[in-house]
């Protein structure tokens, strides 16, 4: 996003929302654009917001036999039917209640 996160979130509930000054006390976006120390923010970026904390796991693949795909689909459809039976009185769609579309 290219805008203050606080203004976006509070804007849903308030008619006028403003960013907090200095920017490093407002949100992640404002901290990145903060110029409180004459052009550059002196406050360090919070470590919990760092992209260095993102863990990348190796991707694994396996080949699936077409018969196995058919079997899994049939079992999932059977499970969906059981879920629909037990949710006879729902106020929303069965897809929303069961997770199946």
Rounded to an integer in angstroms, the radius of gyration calculated over CA atoms is 24 Å
Per the principal axes of the C-alpha atoms, what is the gross shape?
A: elongated
Q: Briefly note the structural class of the backbone.
A: mainly alpha
Strand content: under 5%
The overall pLDDT average reads 81
The counted number of beta strands is 0
Number of helices: 4
User: What is the string of SSEs from the N terminus onward?
Assistant: HHHH
Distance between the termini: 30 Å
> The biggest beta sheet, please?
none
**Oligomerization category of the chains in this entry:** single chain
Helical proportion, percent range: 25-40%
Enumerate the spans where pLDDT stays under 50 for 5 or more consecutive residues: none
């Amino acid at each position: 996003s290219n805008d203050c996160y606080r203004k976006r979130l509070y804007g849903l509930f308030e008619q006028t929302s403003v960013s907090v000054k200095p920017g490093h006390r407002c949100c992640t976006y404002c901290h990145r654009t903060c110029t409180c120390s004459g052009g550059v923010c002196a406050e360090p970026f919070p470590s919990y917001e760092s992209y260095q904390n993102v863990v990348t796991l190796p991707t694994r693949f396996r080949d699936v036999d077409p018969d196995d795909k058919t079997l899994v689909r049939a079992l999932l459809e059977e499970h969906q039917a059981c879920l629909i039976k037990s949710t006879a009185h729902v106020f929303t769609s069965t897809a929303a209640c069961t997770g199946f579309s």
